[in-house]
Amino acid sequence: MNQFSGTGVALVTPFNADGSVDYSALEKLVNHVIAGGVNYLVALGTTSEAPTMNATERKQVLAFIIEKCNKRVPVVCGIGGNNTAEVVENLKEYDLTNVDGILTVVPYYNKPTQEGLYQHFKAIAHATTKPIILYNVPGRTVTNMLPPTTLRLANEFKHIVAVKEASGNMSQCMDLVQGKPAHFAILSGDDDLVLPQIAIGMEGVISVAANCFTKDFTGIVNDALAGNYTNAQMLHYKLLEGIRLLFVEGNPAGVKCVLKHMDICGDTVRLPLVNVSEDTNKKIQQYLKNL
Question: In this structure, is residue 267 part of a structural domain?
Fold first, then answer.
C-alpha cells in the first residue's frame, strides 16, 4: 500500500472568538482524530483556512501540529498557490524537517494550460525531495488537471507519490487508476464518494468529515480497503446525510459547526467565510441527535 493510503484528515484551524488561533482546541482536535484512527494529518489544507492566515501563523500552526502529533502518525503540509516561484520559495522557507509529505494544489485563477500545470509541478518537484501529493480540485481552481498530465508527472518523478482527486468525475478517476504507475496512489477528495471510489481501485482519502465523524469515517475506508463492503456500506449510509450537511454552506463552516456541538472547538471562521445559517445549524443538531 502507498504511504498515504487510508484516511488522511484535512485539519480545521480552530479560532477563538476574536479570530486568533485557538491552540488549545487544535491540540484537542489532533488528539481526537488520532484516537479515531486516521492514518495521517494534513496541515494547512483548504479546510484549515490557510489563505486567511498570514505567513507567520501558517508556520506556527504547522509547528504546533507536528509537536502535538509527536510522530504518532505522519504529517502532510499543504504548500501551493498560483505563483510557481512563490511556492518554490515557500518550500525553502518552511521548516519541513518533520513533515512527511507535501500537498500542493493545482494553480487557481490563472487558468493555466495542461502544459502550464506540468511545468508548475515540475518546478515544485525539482525544489523538494519530500513526497508530493498533487491536488486536483477544479470546483475551486476552475482548471481541471486531466489524467494524461497527472500520469506524466507521476511517471517522471518518483517522489510524486499520489494525487488527491476531487473532480468528482468517476470516469476521470478510473482513467487515473488504470494508467497509474505502481508507486502512485489515487486518493479521494470527495467524502461522499469514498466508498465507490475505493471499489474502482482508489487507495484512500484526504477527508474533511474525518475531523468530526472520525471513527465511523475511518471505518468506511478501512472496511472498503479490506473488501468488507457490507459493513462499509452500512457506515456510508449512516454518515451520508451528515457529510452532505458539512458542505451545504461551504467548508469549513459546516464541519466547525459540528465540532462546536461535539465540544472540540468553536465555530469561528475568518472572513470572507461566515458561519452556517441557523437553519443548517438546526439540521446539523438534529442529525447529531439522531446519530
Answer: no
The whole-angstrom separation of Cα 166 and Cα 192 is: 11
Residue 1 pLDDT grade (very low, low, confident, very high; cuts 50, 70, 90): confident
- The answer as to whether 291 is a domain residue is no
Q: Is 40 helix (H, G, I), strand (E, B) or coil?
A: strand
Is there a domain that residue 132 lies in?
yes
**Mean pLDDT score, 264-273:** 98
Contact partners, residue 208, CB within 8 Å, separation at least 6: 10, 47, 191, 246, 247, 251, 252, 255
- Tell me the catalytic residues: 135, 164
Number of domains in the chain: 1
CATH (domain of 189)? 3.20.20.70
Measured between alpha carbons, how far apart are the two ends of the chain, in Å? 32
Of 42, 20, 18, the closest CA to residue 29 belongs to: 42
CA distance 255 to 49: 12
Element (H, E) at 68: helix 55-69
For residue 122, what are the domain limits? 6-229
